Here is the input.
Amino acid sequence: MHKQSLFHISKRDALPWYQAVLIRGGAIVLALIVCALVTMLLTGENPISIYGTIFYGAFGTARKSWVTFQNLAVLLGISLAVTPAFKMRFWNIGAEGQVLIGCLATAACMIVLGDKLPNGVLIPVMLVAAIAAGALWGFLPSFFKAKWNTNETLFTLMMNYIATQLAAFFIIVWEVPKGAGKIGIINQNSEAGWLPVIGGKQYLLTILVVVVMTILMYIYLNYSKHGYEIAVVGESRRTASYAGIKVDRVIIRTMVLSGAVCGLMGLLLTAGTDHTLTTTIVGGRGFTAVMVSWLAKFNPIVMVFTSLLLVVLSRGASEISSVFSLNQSFADILTGIILFFIIGSEFFLTYKVSLRKSRKEA
Here is the structure.
């Protein structure tokens, strides 16, 4: 006799927004409780002190706050870049390489043309080069996908490695001093190619650009013809074809847009804040952006909050390690627990779990 399970899982209808907020909020509260228990068991430290340190690490001083918002802007910008492709069910895992190739194009213009062009001409040239490089890195996997149905996940992942090796090659070519294995600050004396500082705040330009990008991406995805085509292709490519949508064109166009936005973020990183080029300048944010976009259900406005949560956790984790003399692994444990509960809450937003009725009750 076949034994039935105790619980019955069924797909939910669309939840009202306030119920979704309650489920996610409840998941975060549970995560904090579990983190408190783990903290007391493993370290003996007061959990309230740990949470206070996390907040202080992100917002404790004006300098910390600016760095937090700059990190938020960069992560959010890259998340916005990958979102159109993900909404189209094109799994673009190549944002890391697309941003890095934009950084490389920017650095090349700064180094090669820095003493030849005035800033008013050099910066537009850098902008075009960074966007074109990122767009190319987005175009290649989409073209092969559209023409020969290649696996976009593997293709975009491999493009990351190509971008990394290209950056490593040119870092050796441009290294200062020779044999150092790094470039250092580009055009430190002349500041050629450096983006302007607004209001005396180094990170303000990046933040403002990403604010504008967020608004434009929200409008593009929800109120434009292209956004509608992306949504239809994401639901069913066959249905999109029957509706007269040129699916191949939509795939290529969308990935070119994603790559171009990643290239723009590369420009902001190299010419706006870091003023250098390293193979780790993106810092894994191209992969973190996948989580941000997915958790926000491809909604650019919600991405602001998911990006902020991840950035605060990251900044706070570093502060915990230094203040309590704990290794980075403990901070990663707390971050992992919180993310586990947040990701797990998505299951309860999509599915309803109920006790199965016994045959007598039935």
